[in-house]
């Protein structure tokens, strides 16, 4: 797996505004694939990447620093936050919100479609009233703690 430079990577994302932390010099292939696939979801317009964190959303906060809105129960935003754990090949679903029915599953499907075979999805805190139980039936590599 080849790591791309940030400038080379940004050229491949055409459907969303992308913000990459200045601490990142090369984009890990897993982050590249997740980000590219999330950007192809029609409502996702903003993506922010930090060394071990991805946020993607249909909306951003106001102010100088534009942060994709991913907080659960937001009335209008569609988005998610992921913690990437390279040491254990895990992607933790940290926050997810879907103000538009069906986009929660679309985002989860997109993340799992992007993961290499030896990677897992993890949900540490499940406040979803059954959403993650449904997802676990579709993805055997999803662990709910």
Question: How would you sum up this structure, described in words?
Answer:
The chain is α/β, with parallel strands linked by helices and 145 residues long. The chain has one domain (4-144). It has four helices and nine strands; from the N terminus they run βαββαββββαβαβ. The chain has a seven-stranded mixed beta sheet with strand order 2-4-5-6-7-8-9, with helices on one face. The chain has a two-stranded antiparallel ribbon with strand order 1-3. Helix 2 runs antiparallel to helix 3 (103-114). It is globular and about 40 Å long.
Q: What's the helix and strand layout?
A:
Layout: E1 4-5, H1 6-10, E2 17-20, E3 26-27, H2 29-39, E4 46-50, E5 53-57, E6 78-85, E7 90-98, H3 103-114, E8 120-123, H4 131-138, E9 142-144
Parallel strand pairs: 2-4, 7-8, 8-9
Antiparallel strand pairs: 1-3, 4-5, 5-6, 6-7
Helix pairs in contact: 2-3
Keywords:
145 residues, alpha/beta, seven-stranded mixed beta sheet, 4 helices, 9 strands
TL;DR?
The protein is an alpha/beta fold and 145 residues long. The protein has 4 helices and 9 strands, in the order βαββαββββαβαβ.
Largest sheet: 7 strands, mixed
Q: Which structural class should the secondary elements be placed in? A: alpha/beta
Could you state the oligomeric state of the chains shown?
A: single chain
Strand content: 25-35%
Count every beta strand, where a strand is a DSSP E run of 2 or more residues. Answer: 9
Strand order of the largest sheet: 2-4-5-6-7-8-9
Describe the global form: globular
| Contiguous helical run count | 4
What is the helix content?
Answer: 10-25%
Low-confidence stretches: none
The averaged pLDDT comes out at 96
Cα gyration radius (Å): 14 Å
Number of domains: 1
Distance between the termini: 30 Å
**H-E order:** EHEEHEEEEHEHE
């Amino acid at each position: 797996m080849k790591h791309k430079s940030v400038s080379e990577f940004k050229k491949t994302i055409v459907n969303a505004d992308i913000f990459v932390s200045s601490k990142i010099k090369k984009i890990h292939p897993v982050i590249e694939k997740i980000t590219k696939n999330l950007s192809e979801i029609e409502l996702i317009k903003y993506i922010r990447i930090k060394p071990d964190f991805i946020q993607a959303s249909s909306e951003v906060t106001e102010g100088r620093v534009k942060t994709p809105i991913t907080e659960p129960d937001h009335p209008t935003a569609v988005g998610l936050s992921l913690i990437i754990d390279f040491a254990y090949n895990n992607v933790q679903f940290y926050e997810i919100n879907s103000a538009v029915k069906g986009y929660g599953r679309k985002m989860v499907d997109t993340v799992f479609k992007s993961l290499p075979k030896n990677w897992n999805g993890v949900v540490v805190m499940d406040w979803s009233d059954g959403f993650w139980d449904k997802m676990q039936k579709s993805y055997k590599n999803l662990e709910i703690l």
